[in-house]
Amino acid sequence: xxxxxxxxxxxxxxxxxxxxxxxxxxxxxxxxxxxxxxxxxxxxxxxxxxxxxxxxxxxxxxxxxxxxxxxxxxxxxxxxxxxxxxxxxxxxxxxxxxxxxxxxxxxxxxxxxxxxxxxxxxxxxxxxxxxxxxxxxxxxxxxxxxxxxxxxxxxxxxxxxxxxxxxxxxxxxxxxxxxxxxxxxxxxxxxxxxxxxxxxxxxxxxxxxxxxxxxxxxxxxxxxxxxxxxxxxxxxxxxxxxxxxxxxxxxxxxxxxxxxxxxxxxxxxxxxxxxxxxxxxxxxxxxxxxxxxxxxxxxxxxxxxxxxxxxxxxxxxxxxxxxxxxxxxxxxxxxxxxxxxxxxxxxxxxxx
Length: 352
Known about the structure:
By secondary structure, the protein is α+β, with helices and mostly antiparallel strands. It folds into two domains: about 35-185, no CATH class; about 190-280 and about 335-350, no CATH class. About 25% of the residues lie in helices and about 25% in strands. The strands form four sheets. Strands 4-3-10-7-6-1-11 form a seven-stranded mixed β-sheet. A hairpin with a 4-residue loop joins strand 12 and strand 13. Helix 6 (about 190-200) packs parallel to helix 7. The longest helix has 29 residues, at about 1-30. About 20% of the residues are buried. Residues about 20-30, about 280-290 and about 325-335 have low confidence and may be disordered.
């Protein structure tokens, strides 16, 4: 009786140990390192894929580092400085192509538009020499890879097993795989109020020029004026007897929107309606109280250092003569003020 009972107890103990070991095996599988088959699947599913950029990429050899859904390098101040020094490689809404995928021990590098370094094929290094010198058998394209960059997707310990769809979700802060056009990709980077205004083809005070172009298109008429305080540019949309809209921009920002309705009613908006964070490159001089770069005090010259300018014995030194200050140029007949009066007159006549 004891032998069968001990056999049953031994069998139950073995089954229990197997049931306890199964969950740990499943969890270990989820933490396995990416193998060769997984790498091939990612390369097949993502290489040469076209994406739309959601953030600024600096020109040069410094790309972006992404970890846990956030850009961890370069920092905001460093990125602003890189954009000011070298300019942007890619801007939000630009179309890019994943040209290469490099697997590292704890990161995956996605190169876009050829990567930051200009690469050559092995046969592009071969040259044929003769009496007149040597020439490459396969000339390189000087315009190739002018704006390449990369994104490093970093993990804690090692690269786990991932599918292309999971990687697309992880790369969402910098790449948009679902947008069908650059307009959709650009609009997705804006605040919700600005997004809705662009979809409704409406201009808000506080927008920049690019947003106005996305909302209304290129203006049929542009006029520059000076109100005594600052220079501004007026974009005019519409023709009477239809509705006419005057969009005033100072610098890169909309400061006033005036709409003349068909019934003769005039609506003016000057209160800021949307606050758009300026691009890092545009605010580099004003960030953290920094002053703009000093301008050269002397005019450019072809003279060597220490060389004095020639003098005319009859007229004395070649010094510029002070010019009388001229009065501001009068507003042309096609200016916005006269155009506004003509539009109001036509709308009034149409109403009567």
